[in-house]
Write a structure and sequence with these properties.
There is one protein chain. 40% of the residues lie in helices and 20% in strands. The chain is an alpha/beta fold. Strands 1-4-3-2-5-6 form a 6-stranded parallel beta sheet, sandwiched between helices. Strands 7-8-9 form a 3-stranded antiparallel beta sheet. Strand 5, helix 8 and strand 6 form a beta-alpha-beta unit. The longest helix has 16 residues. The radius of gyration is 19 Å and the shape is globular. It binds adenosine monophosphate. Adenosine monophosphate (AMP) binds next to helix 2 and strand 5.
Length: 281
C-alpha cells in the first residue's frame, strides 16, 4: 500500500496508473475508520483496478469548533485497517497541503442545503464541497464512493459534480450498522457506555417508521416519532423529517413522492447522531 501526503507525489503515481488504463476508485474519509468505511473500500476495490482512500479531517466543514477538537484521530490504526482491506493508495495530507491559501469559495446548493444538516450546521456543506472538489482534482477518480449514512451529503456531492461538470461517477453505498442497529459512525467512539446503550433507539425508531408508514399518515408518523424520542430524556432531538430522496424537501403525504426517506438527528450529550431509512410503502 502506498501512502502519500504531498499532492504532486500522489498525482504522479495515479497518472502512471491511468497510463496503464487502470481505473481509479476513490473513498474520501476523515479517518477513525470502521466497517462502514471499509465497506466502501471493498466496493471500490471490486469495481476498480486501483483503490484510493483519503484521510483528512477537514476543518472547514466543522461548524462547531469543539466537534473538531474532539474528532477522533487514529491514523496508524486506520492505515493498518486499510492495508488489511487491500487498499492500494492512501492520501493523508495536512491542512497546509489542502489549503495553502485561505478558502473563500461559496457554493449555492439551493433548497438542498436549506433543510436538515444544512439548516442545523451552517457552512457545513460548503466545507464538504470545497474539500471533495479539491480531492477530486487531485485524485481524478473514475468512481467515487459515498455512504448513504450521510444521505444529504451524497445528494450535495451529486449536485456539485453535475454543476461543476466533474467527470466522476458517484456510487452510493448502503448504511452499515452495528449488531444492535446503530449506524456505524466515527463519533460513536465518543459515546459514554450509558449513551452507547441508548443510541440504537434512533435506528429502532426509524425501523418502526418504515413498518408503520403504510398505516399512519406522514403527520401521524412524525407525531409517533416525537413521542417515542421524548421517552428518552437523554436525547436532545434536532430534527426528524420525512422527505423526497432527490429534492430532500419534506413531504406532507405519501402520494407526494415515489422515493421517500425518513431522516433523524439527535444529540446524546455532546455527540450528534444522524441516521436515515428508505420508506417502502
Ligand atoms: P466520514 O469519515 O465520516 O467523512 O465518512 C466517509 C465516508 O464513509 C462517507 O461517504 C460516509 O457516508 C461513509 N460512511 C460513514 N459511516 C458509514 C456507515 N455506517 N455505512 C456506510 N457508509 C458510511
Amino acid at each position: 500500500m502506498k501512502v502519500f501526503s504531498h499532492i504532486p507525489d500522489i498525482k504522479e503515481f495515479l497518472h502512471s496508473q491511468k497510463k496503464l488504463n487502470h481505473s481509479i476508485g476513490f473513498v474520501p474519509t476523515m479517518g477513525a475508520l470502521h466497517q462502514g468505511h471499509l465497506s466502501l473500500i471493498e466496493r471500490a476495490k471490486k469495481e476498480n483496478e486501483v483503490c484510493t482512500c483519503s484521510i483528512f479531517v477537514n476543518p472547514i466543514q466543522f461548524n462547531n469548533p469543539e466537534d473538531l477538537t474532539r474528532y477522533p484521530i487514529q491514523t496508524d490504526k486506520d492505515l493498518n485497517m486499510l492495508e488489511k482491506q487491500g487498499c492500494d493508495v492512501v492520501f493523508c495530507p495536512d491542512n497546509n497541503e489542502m489549503y495553502p491559501q485561505p478558502v473563500t469559495k461559496k457554493y449555492d446548493f439551493g433548497a438542498l442545503e436549506k433543510v436538515m444538516e444544512g439548516a442545523s450546521r451552517p457552512g457545513h456543506f460548503n466545507g464538504v464541497a470545497i474539500v471533495v472538489k479539491r480531492l477530486f482534482e487531485i485524485i481524478e477518480p473514475d468512481n467515487a464512493y459515498f455512504g448513504e449514512k450521510d444521505f444529504q451529503q451524497l445528494q450535495i456531492i451529486r449536485f456539485l459534480v453535475k454543476n461543476e461538470k466533474i467527470p466522476v461517477n458517484i456510487v452510493p453505498c448502503p448504511i452499515i450498522r452495528d449488531y444492535d442497529g446503530l449506524a456505524l459512525s466515527s463519533r460513536n467512539a465518543l459515546l459514554s457506555e450509558h449513551d452507547r446503550r441508548i443510541a440504537p433507539e434512533i435506528a429502532a425508531v426509524l425501523k418502526e417508521c418504515s413498518t408503520l408508514a403504510g398505516e399512519l399518515s406522514v403527520i401521524e408518523l412524525k407525531a409517533f416519532v416525537c413521542t417515542k424520542i421524548s421517552g428518552f430524556p437523554e436525547f436532545r432531538p434536532d430534527y426528524f423529517e420525512i422527505a423526497d430522496e432527490d429534492t430532500l424537501q419534506p413531504v406532507n403525504s405519501w402520494a407526494d413522492s415515489k422515493n421517500i426517506r425518513a431522516f433523524i438527528a439527535v444529540y446524546l450529550n455532546k455527540v450528534r447522531l444522524i441516521d436515515n431509512i428508505r420508506i417502502i410503502l
